[in-house]
Amino acid sequence: MDIFVSSLTILAALFAALSNRDLLSPAKLYLLFFSIFFAGALTLTSVDLWLLILLVLLVGVGTACLEAGGAERPAHRRNARGTERAHLALWIWVASLPAIAAQIYIVHLFDGIQGYINMIGNRVLETRGLGPAKTVVSTISILNLMYFAVGLTRARSRLWWSAYVFHVLLVLAIGLLSGSRGSTLTVFVMQIFVFHYVRRRVRLAHALSIAAVLLGFAVVLGVMREGLRVDDAGVTTGLDSSSDPGASLSTFFLGVQPLKILVGADDLRLAHGETLLSLVTNVIPRAWWPEKPDTGGVFFTKVYTDDAWDGASNLTPTFLGEWIMNFGWGAGIACFAVASAILMYLTIAYYRRTMAKLRGPVDARTAMDVVVYVYVLWAVVGLMVGEVTNTVQTLVTTQLIPALVLKALLTRRGGLPAPPRQARMLAPGHAGGA
Q1: In what helix (H) or strand (E) does residue 392 lie, and over which residues does it extend?
Q2: Helices H, strands E: what count in the chain?
Q3: Distance (Å, rounded) from C-alpha 395 to C-alpha 403?
Q4: Spatial CA neighbour of 148 closest among 371, 415, 319
Q5: Apex 422 CA angle, 417 and 425, nearest 5
Q6: Contact of 326 with 332, CB cutoff 8 Å
Q7: Distances (CA, A) of 359 to 235, 297, 416, 428, 433
Q8: Structure pTM?
Q9: Adjacent-strand bridge partners of 229
Q10: Comparing 126-135, 296-305, 369-378, 390-399, which segment has the lowest mean pLDDT?
């Protein structure tokens, strides 16, 4: 079974590459995520588990077929002229100030950098109640990527790029302070996507090299984070101690382990849709509603791992796993198949619309639209090994809303002139003036 799934993955990747030459199209990203997060399946022998993994792969195969022959951007990028006014970078800095202030506030709560670093390994418990502040902090990532995207649309001065470098260093520092490998490393991945679509194509050899380096960093950061501590003796990391060697390889089992736990369960204790309902109820403070529905990761960890980390960490159930633990094997698998088909269909439609925009000159507004597309694509594909509530809420509150607010602010202040009505009417996907 492992040979069959591995062969199908390779064939699907080859088909995706030959049918659509865009290196970073949705199907290719999906198959890449599958190859990384389900690589640990090669150690499995359970046929039932392999069938579930095959189902996840078939979503990627379907996506490759759906996007075959899809619109792709021109080989040479034309930059727009005369559509951007002064002080655009300044307003991006202004929009970033709340995130910077929120991070300073959180660090202050833990008596400075040393105290903050020492609690990173237990951050889930230690930062409870700080959800609003952490949400504000997270908004800086998409603002930074918009900064980068706008910078690529035309020649910029050294002052512009110097200010950007300082901004991206702040983002990386905040990502490291969060203890999240994703918050740190996806900064570079997102830059690659934006460069690919706004400036010029990224070559396969370069993309693979960068992916390998970032994956290596992800493993190292995961080990360092577990034992990170600062005291009078200096800085101690997980690299200094005899940590569990399996922890460094956990990335390759993110998709496998939750499904393995479900398959090995004596009987399924179903959530009956409550973890999906938490998408709406999660915004209510638990102090106001102690018995509110748990999110997918919290429910899965409590019920199927007997709260293995005592609330200090949670195991995400994967998109397939969340449907199964809500509605059982038959209904859960059917719901997963339908939901995945709808999501990927909408993603391909969004992809084609974005590519159509890139056929013309790329100005600051179009570059920002590319950034939003990249974040939506990343969220949809990342849902493969995530949970519904956290993925959707993160996308909306820390990415889409800040992006829309920034665009509105820049339009109002003259940094982004609103497109003429005729251009809006001719835009792909426009209907009835909506």
Answers
A1: helix 388-395
A2: 20, 2
A3: 11
A4: 371
A5: 105
A6: yes
A7: 51, 41, 20, 11, 22
A8: 0.86
A9: 236
A10: 126-135
More confident residue, 235 or 308: 308
Given CA atoms 47, 53, 56, 60 in this order, what sign does their dihedral have?
Answer: negative
The chain-wide mean pLDDT, for the chain, equals: 82
DSSP string, 310-368: TTS------HHHHHHHHH-HHHHHHHHHHHHHHHHHHHHHHHHHHHHHTTS-B-HHHHH
DSSP 188-236: HHHHHHHHHHHT-PPPHHHHHHHHHHHHHHHHHHHHHHHT-EEETTEEE
**What radius of gyration do the chain's Cα atoms show?**
22
Q: How many Å apart are CA 280 and CA 127, to the nearest integer?
A: 22
Question: Quick check: helix, strand or coil at residue 105?
Answer: helix
Q: How many residues does the chain have?
A: 434
Q: Is 274 exposed, middle or buried (0-12, 13-18, 19+ CB in 10 A)?
A: middle
Question: How far is residue 161's CA from residue 366's CA, in Å, rounded to a whole number?
Answer: 20
What SS3 class is residue 169? helix
Cα distances (angstroms) measured from residue 31 to each of 194, 253, 357: 20, 15, 25
- Tell me the per-residue pLDDT of 95-149, one tens digit each, with 9 for 90 and over: 999 999 999 998 888 877 777 777 666 666 666 777 788 889 999 999 999 999 9
Q: What is the Cα 300 distance to its own chain's centre?
A: 21
Residue 199: φ, ψ to 5° = -105, -70
Distance CA 71, CA 354 (A): 9
Phi-psi region of 180 (alpha: psi -120 to 50; beta: other; left: phi over 0): beta
Q: How many of the other CB atoms lie within 10 Å of CB of 28?
A: 22
Amino acid at 196: H
The Cα–Cα gap between 307 and 315 comes to 10
In the block, residue with structure tokens 């970033």: 96
Give 70's DSSP letter: -
Residue for token pair 């609330």: 311
Q: What is the pLDDT of residues 147-205, one digit of tens each?
A: 999 999 888 889 989 999 999 999 988 888 776 666 778 888 899 999 999 988 888 78
